[in-house]
Amino acid sequence: MPLREIIDRSINETLARSLYTNATAFLALGADKHAVGGGGGGGGGHETVY
Question: Mean pLDDT over residues 15-33, rounded?
Protein backbone atom coordinates (compact mmCIF):
# COMPACT_ATOMS: atom_id res chain seq x y z
CA MET A 1 0.00 0.00 0.00
CA PRO A 2 1.49 3.37 -0.99
CA LEU A 3 2.34 5.86 1.74
CA ARG A 4 -0.22 8.36 0.45
CA GLU A 5 -3.06 5.82 0.88
CA ILE A 6 -1.87 4.95 4.38
CA ILE A 7 -1.83 8.61 5.41
CA ASP A 8 -5.24 9.26 3.83
CA ARG A 9 -6.77 6.23 5.54
CA SER A 10 -5.24 7.18 8.90
CA ILE A 11 -6.60 10.72 8.72
CA ASN A 12 -10.08 9.51 7.74
CA GLU A 13 -10.19 6.97 10.58
CA THR A 14 -8.96 9.55 13.10
CA LEU A 15 -11.59 12.08 12.04
CA ALA A 16 -14.34 9.47 12.25
CA ARG A 17 -13.28 8.46 15.78
CA SER A 18 -13.16 12.12 16.83
CA LEU A 19 -16.68 12.72 15.55
CA TYR A 20 -18.02 9.62 17.32
CA THR A 21 -16.29 10.68 20.56
CA ASN A 22 -17.71 14.21 20.38
CA ALA A 23 -21.22 12.96 19.62
CA THR A 24 -21.06 10.55 22.56
CA ALA A 25 -19.83 13.28 24.90
CA PHE A 26 -22.61 15.68 23.86
CA LEU A 27 -25.23 12.97 24.31
CA ALA A 28 -23.86 12.15 27.77
CA LEU A 29 -23.88 15.82 28.79
CA GLY A 30 -27.44 16.23 27.52
CA ALA A 31 -28.60 13.14 29.42
CA ASP A 32 -26.88 14.39 32.59
CA LYS A 33 -28.48 17.83 32.33
CA HIS A 34 -31.90 16.29 31.75
CA ALA A 35 -31.55 13.78 34.61
CA VAL A 36 -30.44 16.42 37.12
CA GLY A 37 -33.39 18.68 36.43
CA GLY A 38 -32.29 20.93 33.61
CA GLY A 39 -34.35 21.89 30.64
CA GLY A 40 -35.91 24.96 32.22
CA GLY A 41 -34.55 28.47 32.16
CA GLY A 42 -31.58 29.75 34.13
CA GLY A 43 -28.86 27.90 35.89
CA GLY A 44 -26.58 25.13 34.83
CA GLY A 45 -28.96 22.30 35.56
CA HIS A 46 -27.71 21.61 39.07
CA GLU A 47 -30.02 22.28 41.95
CA THR A 48 -28.85 24.00 45.13
CA VAL A 49 -30.50 22.75 48.32
CA TYR A 50 -30.15 24.68 51.58
Answer: 88
CA distance 40 to 6: 48
Kindly state the DSSP code that residue 48 receives in the 8-state scheme: -
CB 37 within 8 A of CB 45: yes
DSSP 24-46: HHHHHHHHHHHHHT-SSSSS-S-
d(CA 30, CA 32): 5
Which of the pair, 33 or 30, is modelled with greater confidence? Answer: 30
pTM of the model: 0.53
